[in-house]
Amino acid sequence: MTPRIRIDADAPTPPYEQVRAQLAGAIGDGLLAVGTRLPAVRALAADLGLAVNTVARAYRELESAGLVETRGRHGTVVAPGRDDATDRLHRAAAGYAAEARRLGVPAERAVALVRAALDAGTRGPQRSPERGE
Question: How many domains does the chain fold into?
């Protein structure tokens, strides 16, 4: 059974990302077990009052992240072999991306901040991209 997905039309987060994030969260939390079949794109789009392409994009993003597999006429299912650490990191990244959008930080700047944080652990102190250094 697929968890209830809620779309907030007033949220700054696009509907496809709301669908993707909620499904990714359910997969990461174990609410959707490996092999669980997701609703057909058209059915979910109709249930949520969204365009088919909106839900299809969410499914493509989930597939790109390795969380689901599309099996043609057999539908889309939760992928096996998930890595819990990767799942948790994916959720954290999605939260970070949502916060960056909410704050109006351009994607390039948000990625630069992550890169600087990752590099700081391996190269010592770095100049801050946030301050333009």
Answer: 2
Residues 118 and 67 in one domain: no
Nearest to 28 by CA among 1, 66, 61: 66
User: Model's pTM, two decimal places?
Assistant: 0.63
Which letter, b or e, does each residue of 57-78 get, where b requires 16 or more Cβ atoms within 10 Å of its Cβ? Answer: bbbbbbeebebbbeeeeeebbb
Residues 4 and 59 in one domain: yes
pLDDT class of 124 with cuts at 50, 70, 90: low
Are 24 and 76 in a shared domain? yes
92/2 Cα distance (integer angstroms): 22
- Domain check: are 46 and 61 in the same one? yes
pLDDT of residue 72 exceeding 60, the answer is: yes
pLDDT, one tens digit per residue, over 33-71 is 888 999 999 999 999 999 999 999 999 999 998 899 998
* Residues of the domain holding 48: 1-80
